[in-house]
Specification:
Elements (H helix, E strand, L loop, with lengths): L2 H9 L4 H22 L2 H18 L8 H20 L6 H10 L6 H7 L2 H14 L2 H11 L5 H8 L3 H21 L7
Helix pairs in contact: 1-2, 2-3, 2-4, 3-4, 9-10
């Protein structure tokens, strides 16, 4: 079913909207949440909570594209759940991916002093637009969807080593891009 038809079902307050949303994007949502949480039961709960969130916000929201909208809800709920579950200990899969980016960004406090999150998002969006489609997919699969090198390699038809090298190069380019846009980076 097309996104606009699913959204119309939400506006009509039809429970069929949730079923169609799950049919179309459930696998992606569960995969995203599972990559962050590492626990199927918690991931399923976050996805269900995301569907409730979509139900409560559509209407008045009329999201386009719907996939980005629901993935953002799933990701935020999954990250919140992860923070609650791992407040005192590190979660290796998620922390490893974010640790890779530490060389590009400075501490949050310094970043807040220089520009707000919206400006940073604009600069990063421009950076992503400058990448080839394949490199953009690799970057987003790693740092947004938290996919493993193995999973990314399988999806884009490269070796894990090639994905690893590409990510190192992309992070280096990101660091230069941020410096050129006067954003403090780690040394």
């Amino acid at each position: 079913m097309q996104d606009d038809k699913i959204i119309r079902l939400f506006f009509a307050r039809s429970e069929e909207a949730i079923r169609q949303l799950d049919c179309k994007y459930g696998k992606v949502c569960r995969s995203l949440s599972l990559n962050i949480l590492g626990d199927r039961q918690d991931a399923e709960e976050c996805v269900n909570d995301a569907y409730l969130g979509a139900w409560n916000t559509i209407p008045p929201q009329n999201p386009s594209p719907l996939l980005s909208y629901i993935c953002k809800i799933v990701r935020n709920l999954s990250l919140r759940c992860l923070r609650q579950k791992t407040a005192a200990r590190r979660n290796s899969h998620y922390d490893v991916a974010l640790h890779e980016l530490e060389g590009c960004l400075s501490s949050a406090g310094t970043l807040d002093d220089q520009l707000d999150a919206k400006e940073l998002a604009t600069v990063i969006r421009q950076f992503l637009d400058s990448l080839s489609v394949e490199n953009r997919v690799i970057f987003l699969r790693r740092y947004w969807f938290m996919d493993s090198y193995h999973e990314i390699a399988r999806q884009v038809g490269l070796t894990e080593k090639t994905v690893s090298v590409r990510l190192v190069r992309i992070r280096q380019k990101l660091k230069v891009w941020l410096e050129e846009n006067d954003i403090a980076v780690s040394s």
